[in-house]
Design brief:
Length: 161
Amino acid sequence: MAEREIKYRGLKTFQIFNGESNSVWIYGFYLKRGTYGDPGPQAHIFVYENGYEGYRVEAETIGQFTGLLDKDGKEIYEDDIISFDDGKIGIVEFVRGCFVVRYGKDKVTQSLYEMHKWGIKILGNRFENPELIGEKSVSKNKIDDPQAIHIFESVAYERSE
């Protein structure tokens, strides 16, 4: 069995002394756990740096590493907004056990692995740059309706040249 890196990222928001808030991405492994005094299990990303350190992150921002890199060598994560050499823009999602890209007015869904060969560049993500895909909120809008999904190879992606 080939070894692959399984890791996640999540957004940690904290208050600064003057009342403003700041956010930072935490990269590591995901664990949902409760701590004393919490109302229930909370989302945490753990990082190994001279021992494990856990950071509570916003659960809706957790996304898994796809195992692929964009053309600039950046890691591609779930919820990243990406562009292709032909100018199309899409968003990376995890649907039915596979990383896919949803793009276009019809929200066509196709395998990220197949599309990865066409020169992907990360533009941002749905939480920090929702305007890139026409979203106003920062919630995950996963596709769960089977009729709304055009599954992977059944949709031919025609690349304009």
